[in-house]
Sequence to fold (328 residues):
Amino acid sequence: MPRTALRVRRWAAIAVLGGLLVGCGTENADPDPGAAAAAAGAGARTGTEVRPIEAATRITDAKGVTVSLPKPPEKIVCLVALCDDILVELGLTPTATNSQVLAHPEFLGKEKAAKIPVVPGGFLSPEVEAILSHKPDLVIGLEDTHGKLAPALKGATTFWPVQPGSWQDSVGYLRDLAALTGRTAEGEKAEKAFRTRLARAEKDKSDKTSLIVYGSDENFGVATPETDVAAGLFPKISHYPWKSRGVDGSYSLEEILARDVDVLFVETLSFGAPDGKLSDKLAKNPLWSRIPAVKNGKVIEVDSEVWAKGRGTRSLGVVLDEATAALR
Fold:
């Protein structure tokens, strides 16, 4: 895969963090038994109970990052789609964003999303002056990508670096931001809806073999539970025999063919102007047509903004709905 594609996918598939903070303080760790194992698809079925969220002006997240604000933030700039996802779940919208996930119909839709200012510079290099021009109370970015902006933002606003690696992390960040914004009822409702959806999908787990591939050309990658939040759901809802081989390793079409994949989800990553679907490019390889999913018309091109980049409970809910429908 080209270096650019690999770099972009890294932020959409981050190594799983250990543990989860729900609310404020380490005593609020996720109540699910075997949470670490569940992140890889094993362990007990997801619980649907949601503990109350208490409003707070200071939280400490799962990674030990403390965010302290004098009052609930009103202007929030999102540099990572997880932020947009959470805000929509809480009934809020970002002051500015550099994500396209808001245009999805399950978020704001194209018309409303177009009214949200876009931070220039793209995901990898958002412009600090542009961020500060919105006078934000809080800026949320991806730690391993936007952490370098922290010194430039210090003193002018509060920067919160996040690093989701599993759905449990995503729920933790939802609860944290719900506490900071005072949108506690909305946060509890969103968590409940997601947990219920996941538990339902687990109960009706498919015996079919599924696979998520991503890329911009024939040099594709395989999304694995250890490195991708959405893929982390798949061992819970289907047979998903794919393990991480590190940032420089992936699977060949020969290996995929040998696994008899029944349903194949494809994330086309675009760099600049769209230049066609990844599935169409992969179809040039004669082995592609021999994969059961291809032969049986079970190749689904999905929205990479949601599947690869969203990573919040609303995005993951869309992933579950689309995946379970295809796996029936």
The first strand starts at residue 58 and ends at 60.
